[in-house]
Amino acid sequence: MGIADEAGWLRKGACRSSDPELFFPLAPSRVQETQAKAVCADCQVLAQCRDYALRAGESEGIWGGMTPEERRRARFPAGWRTPATT
Ligand code: SF4
């Protein structure tokens, strides 16, 4: 199943009518992040979007109200890697 099939919910995304630059900025900023997250907060498919992005390991852009950095931390929480014992 490709992304277009799996992500049919994307058609219902609140970001469909937003400026793509808000979600996939060339130069991310705190203001842009805040504005994108505000759109996500009112999105009816936020849960599916966040779940997809975390599973797929999307490394770019705002998905499901989360920045790439926030998704990385959610996927690999602090302490997930146990120190090697020698
Ligand atoms: S949660 Fe955000 S990025 Fe995902 S579809 Fe909705 S508005 Fe778009």
Automatic annotation (TrEMBL):
Keywords: 4Fe-4S, Cytoplasm, Disulfide bond, DNA-binding, Iron, Iron-sulfur, Metal-binding, Transcription, Transcription regulation. Its main location: cytoplasm. This is Transcriptional regulator WhiB. It comes from the Bacteria. The keyword DNA-binding applies. [4Fe-4S] cluster binds at residues 15, 40, 43, 49. HAMAP family: WhiB (MF_01479). Acts as a transcriptional regulator. Probably redox-responsive. The apo- but not holo-form probably binds DNA. Binds 1 [4Fe-4S] cluster per subunit. Following nitrosylation of the [4Fe-4S] cluster binds 1 [4Fe-8(NO)] cluster per subunit. Its cofactor is [4Fe-4S] cluster. One of its GO terms (molecular function) is DNA binding. GO terms for cellular component: cytoplasm. Residues 14-73 form the 4Fe-4S Wbl-type domain. Pfam families: Whib. PANTHER family: TRANSCRIPTIONAL REGULATOR WHID-RELATED (PTHR38839). Belongs to the WhiB family. GO terms for biological process: cell redox homeostasis; negative regulation of DNA-templated transcription. It is found in: Cytoplasm. The gene is whiB.
